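Dear Dr. V.,

Thank you for agreeing to look over these. As mentioned in my earlier message, I'm a first-year student in the group and I'm still getting used to reading structure tokens, so any feedback on how I've presented them would be very welcome. I ran two proteins. I've put each sequence directly above its structure. The first is here:
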Amino acid sequence: MRKHDFTYFFGEGMRNMFSHGFMSFAAVGITVACLVVMGTFSLVAYNAQVQLQKLESEYEILAFVDENCDEAQTKAVGRAIEQRDNVKECVFISKEEAIESFEEKYEGDELFQNLDPEILRDRYAVYVDDLSISGKTAQDIFDNVDGVAEVMAHYEIINGFQTLQKVLNIASSVIIVVLFVLSLFIISNTIKLTTFDRRDEIAIMKMVGATNGFIRWPFVYEGFMIGLLSAVLGFGLQWLLYESVAKSLAMSDRLQLLTIVDFTAIWQPVAAIFAAAGILIGVGGSLTAIRKFLRV
């Protein structure tokens, strides 16, 4: 494309956008709203994924050592567990450490204080690589490691993690697709108004030999600029909204367990996604709108 063609197409695109100021403003506003909603659901899903990964990394299988094992046998149990498939880490917890942890958990309840460590067993906290097969790993440890008297694995926690992850992925995907199509439809209808007003001009240009590309480019630039402007505004609004929610959660005593990823750590990919989505919506809407009017 020659430089003067770019200048012409860009100028025509700007003129088209401002010639329908209210509709262009409405298209930008609605697209910004759709991008922010899409971004919000995506960021919620991302933070939930990070939170789930953190919880999954903390999930442990407890392998209790037979009370008849001496110190050497207990260490041998740990080495045997570490050699099992899917075991990432194996941490020894003595009776004394277990009782301390138990008393801290129920601090303030006299019934659970000053207990004798001998009522508990030494155990190993086993962390796995693949949470989905942790049940098989727990059974493998129980069946094949000598000196393991009992294995405790909370399968309901695993199922909860996996179910929540699937629900979040499906819900966010559906909402993002619906809003993307809606934004595309709005941009397309906005640019259709411009092309409808210029349908006679387009017909004359076709009759005198103008190519479809020459006619199409100004509308493509119009959609590009609407989409890019929407992306910039939407990204700025999303950042402000995200920081506001993060500060509210940080100040809430009841929600201290929730960790929110710092926006400064993810702003670059978020900005790139906003720009790509905005431009794709704008250009896609333009191409969809102009296609009908090029069939002269």
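The second protein is here, in the same arrangement:
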Amino acid sequence: PQQKFERIELLPPYVFAEVNRFKAELRAKGKDIIDFGMGNPDSPTPAHIVKKLTETVQNPDTHRYSMSKGIPGLRKAISGYYKRRWDVDINPETEAVVTIGSKEGLVNMANAISSKDSTILVPDPCYPIHEFGYVLAGAKVHSLPKFTGVPFYNQVKEAIEGSKTKPLAVILNYPCNPTAETADLAFYEEMVALCKHYGVWILSDLAYCEIYFDEPTPSIMQVKGAKDIAVEFTTMSKTYSMPGWRVGFCVGNQKLIYALTRIKSYVDYGAFTPIQVASAYALNGPQDCVDGFRKLYKERRDVLIEGLNKAGWKVEAPKAGMFVWAKIPEKFRAMGSLEFSKKLMEEAEVAVAPGIGFGKYGDEYVRIALIENKQRTRQATRNIKKFLQG
């Protein structure tokens, strides 16, 4: 058959696939590529969480279908986490749903709430699924150049007031992937007031909330009345170094939570029960492992930033998250982020993520993930220095 698949045709060529192909070629030639490309945590999951998983899996009752909205114990654990961390009350029955990683939750939320007439306001650059979850759901996406705080608030306000049909929702993501920008509680308060006034939903992605280096990250749920119009996605992936376990959550507005739960009841039976039991154990148990990961990322950030600046690549230290969003050095900027990334890989043996992969406004940047140890990071900055001065 010759017909095209329309939904698939809507997706641009996956930039990261091209980078990965090039990386594989260079490695096949014997090059030792130091890889900062994917935000894939390299630390093992803490032993007490793994132990709980292996204990639970011995019980054959846990091998049956699970619950698509998440087992009650895990929904209670996320409710307890919100209370401890932000003093926010979340009803585990009506205001929380467990997702198979936050990515699945974001996609199924898009499917749950969108129609072909829906418009979603999405920052650019953004984590690709924030945009393409809605593209795949058949909605229209209105991209807003990503500047945090007041400028971003103003863009959202202009987009709402200037559109013929009211946007359905706006996506927020702080600490941001890829830009590492952060937001304070005052920003969330203004966004809630604005979106409440115009009746626009807010979908907040808080995946990196526990990787902060100075002030703890706020949650939009701390804002009075946020639950009237907002939901928030969080995940176990980065906080507990559990990326492959695929466990996330969505909490907040009951109507949106119900819509997501309803869609999920048709498409999945939830994550494997032992994984959910171990996740509840992680949330309820000792949190020193979270402090340890935070310290690890901070050390890597400091080594990378110091090394890049010494190499002549002026980059600011992010306040949170596991990425450095670096503006391409001026003499290479015109070639764009994909070609620069390939050049960096070929000549400095360092892999990064091209900014164009996160949106058209990202093309003057690359994203560097803090996923290599300090020794390898130092080696990478030495290689970069040679490359830049060559």
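From my reading of the second output: The mean pLDDT is 94. The first strand starts at residue 34 and ends at 35. Does that match how you would interpret it?

Kind regards,
E.
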